[in-house]
Amino acid sequence: MGMIKLLQGNxxxxxxxxxxxxxxxAGYPITPSTEVAEYLARRLPQNGGVFLQMEDEIAxxxxxxxxxxxxxxxxxxxxxxxQSDIMQCRWGTHGDxxxxxxxxxxVQEIFSETVRAFNLSEKYRTPVIIAFDEIVxxxxxxxxxxxxxxxxxxNRVKPTCPPxxxxxxxxxxxxxxxxxxxxxxxxxxxxxxxHGTDGFPVNASPRIHTDELRLMRKVEANKAEIIKYEExxxxxxxxxxxxxxxxxxxxxxxxxxARAEGIKAGLLRPxxxxxxxxxxxxxxxxxxxxxxVPELSLGQIIFEVxxxxxxxxxxxxxxxxxxxxxxxxxxxxxxxxxx
Length: 339
What we know:
3-stranded parallel beta sheet; alpha/beta; 5-stranded mixed beta sheet; globular; single chain
């Protein structure tokens, strides 16, 4: 039996990070993510970890990159104004490479998805974003923190060769080569430019092309493991709802309200939003009359849903940007329009 706690989402994220073995945090206070920093400022030193408050978010990112290169599982926390965040997660990249972004909707999920985020990051040697909105971040719910060993914890693969033979980006070792820690005798170069197997920048176009393909492949080829979602009452649904985050919570209630009125609605709720669950949306579009997409924006993920549906069913959005959540009643009303 694990430990039962009443935590807000930000605190659950912090506990998830500690469970996964996080030993370094660098960040800058910004509402509504500040509690992650506050909580870890207290808990990390108690567990032999290090907390740093940086002067801004750019400095925080530089610090967590350094912490990771030195062998620490590292975390930062920040927030955005809310509208463009979900697309910023995907397309705000330095170069053409994939992104892993998780979207938990419950405090318990924030804990477990934070553990999963660290595992994915360690396994695929890539940053992972945990994107949850202010409502769930500040909501308090009863959660269980499992005993150590109940949830799997993944650690990065280390090289077995001597330092003189080590190449940090040797793709002959696979799409995710072993990663050495700095300060353990292994020397290599880190750059934001395309690079050779030793990490130093290259201008040779064939190498750049193959490197970009490797970055794409290590996520795209493993989507079956990375993509996670919940299906709720979809087996016989006539109308589907695609919703994530706090809108996913409202959508689940809307489904129950619809069923109480004899309307066969169902919910597809992604816990991984990037890479996008294309196959699941495509399959849903083949068996429903329409898909409702509630968003706390003026319409972004709806275009991904439409792209994957390929015109097989109607797609209807619900948009809200006044700072309040989309209600179950709003979603139910839209379901009635498209059924």
